[in-house]
Amino acid sequence: MWANGLKWMFLIVGTLIGAGYASGRELWQFFGAESNVAIFLFTALFTISCFVIMNLAFTQKTTQYVPLLTTLVGPKLARAYDWIILSYLFSTTTIMLAGAGATLEVYNIPFWLGMTGTAAMVVLLFLKDTQGMTTINAYLIPVLILSLVSILLVFQYSLGFTFSLDLSHQQNWPSAITFTSLNILPVVAVVSAIGNQMKHKGEIWIAAIGSGVLMGSISYLYNESLLQIAGEIMFYEIPLFVILKQYPSIMVIAMSVLLWLAIYTTAGAGIFGLISRLRGYLRGESWLIAMFLLAIMAPLTTFGFSSMIAVLYPLYGAVNLYILVCIILYPFFHHPSLNRNKKAD
Predict the structure, then answer these.
(1) On the CB side of 76, how many CA atoms lie within 13 Å of its CA?
(2) pLDDT per residue over 20-30, tens digit each?
(3) What are the C-alpha distances in Å from 33 to residues 7, 46, 243?
(4) Nearest 10 degrees: CA dihedral of 117, 120, 121, 122?
(5) Which residue windows are transmembrane per the record (predicted)?
(6) 24 three-class SS
(7) 198 vs 209: CA distance, rounded Å
(8) Residue 133: band (very low, low, confident or very high) from pLDDT cuts 50, 70, 90
(9) In the chain, what are the domains?
(10) Is the pLDDT of residue 238 over 90?
(11) What was the pLDDT predicted at 269?
(12) Burial of 168 (C-beta count, 10 Å sphere; 0-12/13-18/19+)
């Protein structure tokens, strides 16, 4: 139970900690100053959402997200959100490829080479069908998390630890709702693909609480660090490089590896979700489908990493608000006691 619960937890976290998040660009887009309450609220909303989604996937033994969407929003809206999720998975995977090119440009590696090299590595994930995706996350995500937290703690140590727990004048709390709604779509897509693989309800508790607390803690630590370099962020495509600019080159190398791992796992999760949904339409081996999808995405990376995040992420956050409300309210409207009362009537 514990092993599977942790595996699903790392799958969820690996889906979210992509180039946008690990680089700091996504967090700065939504949080920043006066965001302590927002981050605490995000932690609670995300934990509840993960639990509801995983519980539904486990109950329905899903292999893709359409049945789960239909349960949450009804058949008509499910069709609309089906297209939204497909669009989200496609566009965010494209952003990951653009992030790969931007990250490796630090070493004067051409953008196209960094992008295509990462795409090739994603294809390798699916040589053993979709099992390779969940297996690689179980090994890479703990390394990714430890690396990111270590870098941020070293930076905080150099400043004498600047953490603030001030809960007054917290006017940015609505960002928690849009940030959660942005991140809930990939969770729906990826968790739905493994609903038939969950064996025990205990796995749900471990994965939901673990991923919520982990994402909330890292978000707080990261946001507090970004606040210390707020004046310089606008001049950098990847804000985390501002934190590292005074450090030895070995730290920059470590950061580049970290960002690439984040890109790799999130791009893999995006392709994983797309393959699970498109199985009935695209025939062939998983790695061939992955190669086909990545080939379509490649030309779109020319729009730029930070530009795509600035435009698409807030847009998806707003569009997904309704499905977030449906997820949060689902346990209240489908509580067993309510169902018994309806039957009695």
Answers:
(1) 0
(2) 788 888 898 89
(3) 34, 21, 17
(4) 120
(5) 38-59, 80-103, 109-127, 139-161, 173-192, 204-222, 250-275, 287-309, 315-333
(6) coil
(7) 16
(8) low
(9) 2-344 (1.20.1740.10)
(10) no
(11) 81
(12) exposed
Query: What percent of the chain lies above the pLDDT cut of 70?
Result: 94
Length of the chain (residues): 345
Query: What gap in Å lies between CA 124 and CA 128, rounded to an integer?
Result: 8
Token output for 328? 């949060």
263, 268, 271, 276 alpha-carbon torsion, rounded to 10° = -150
Q: Which pLDDT tens digit goes with each residue over 306-340?
A: 778 788 878 888 888 999 999 999 988 775 544 54
Supply the pLDDT for residue 105: 78
Residue bearing tokens 């006691």:
337
Q: Which amino acid is at 118?
A: T
Alpha helices in the chain (DSSP H): 2-16, 19-22, 25-30, 36-60, 66-73, 75-104, 111-125, 131-159, 175-192, 201-227, 240-244, 249-278, 286-297, 305-319, 321-333, 336-344
CA 37 to chain centre: 21
Give whole-number Cα distances, 1 to 128, 142, 144, 271, in Å.
24, 18, 23, 27
Helix axes 75-104, 249-278, angle to 10 degrees: 150
Whether 224 and 303 have beta carbons less than 8 Å apart is answered as: no
Residue 85 · residue 188 · CB < 8 Å: yes
Ramachandran region, residue 238 (left: φ > 0; alpha: ψ -120 to 50; beta: rest): beta
Buried/exposed code over 142-151 (b: 16+ C-beta within 10 A; e: otherwise): eebbebbeeb
d(CA 332, CA 189): 23
Q: Which residue has the tokens 């990261």?
A: 222
According to the 3-state scheme, what is the secondary structure of 249-303? HHHHHHHHHHHHHHHHHHHHHHHHHHHHHHCCCCCCCHHHHHHHHHHHHHHHHHH
Please say whether the beta carbons of 133 and 275 come within 8 A: no
pLDDT at residue 69 tops 80: yes
**Eight-class DSSP state of 65:** S
